[in-house]
Amino acid sequence: MAFKDVIGFGVAGNFAGHLEQAGEAKDFLAVEVKEAIQPKAIFPFYVPAKEAGFLSTYPLSSDTIVPPNDADNLQIEPEVALLCDIEYQGTQVVGLKPVKFAAYNDCSIRKPNAKKISEKKNWGADTKGIAAELFDLDHLAEGGMLDDYRIASFHKRGDTTERYGEDSPVIGYSYFHQQLLDWIVDRMNNQQDVGPTENIAELLSHADYPSQALISIGATRYTEYGETHFLQSGDTSIVVVYNGKQYQEDEIATMAKENNFAESGLSALVQHVA
Hints:
Strand content: 25-35%
CATH class: Alpha Beta
Distance between the termini: 20 Å
Number of helices: 5
Radius of gyration: 17 Å
Helix content: 10-25%
Shape: globular
CATH architecture: Alpha-Beta Complex
CATH topology: Fumarylacetoacetate hydrolase, domain 2
Order of helices and strands: EHEEEEEEEEEEEHHEHEHE
Number of strands: 15
């Protein structure tokens, strides 16, 4: 597995309106933020350490989603994932350098009684999605290549393919560029075990301070269809991160419907629901 030694984190609340649509905004009422648009927290979805309990199960797949036995409200969460080198001074994280990116599905169950975000994110093997091929990233500063990219997602059931998330520009994230990286570094060092959040510094210690992190940076808003339709066995989940200067929305929709994606300028993640 490509990322078995890489710690996995996600960013909660980095696209305006998503938490409200997912019914999760109330979970973060006790989380202090400095401004309204600030993301709420980072959460672990994989920690390469036995002490991490269920989070030590490797959840990533590039072609399959295995639903939980006890949930019927499984949703696609279309995102961009960044593979980042972690820089430490002692046990403090002092920098993140994104080196690659890919389409990502932060597939989630809506558990109203979950105490931590992570309980909705990793329920076993093949429960998360990342495209098989990651693309080299020049940098995350303003003006970088990722500024031109967009995020699209689709749900296929039988012969019908529907848009699941709003087709959104990557620069539409509330926090992006260096602001996002600086905020994640702060959360890695200072986030505490409060409410739905977890102590990230402790998890980094359990994992013996891994050299890299795979970070999904937030899910887009759902279409009306996506907000009200949940994954079932036999469905197909599709997330596409594509160059908006190279392709139009309708071209990506046609590729998704035909399951025939161009070989350049996009990252496509197609997962069958088992």
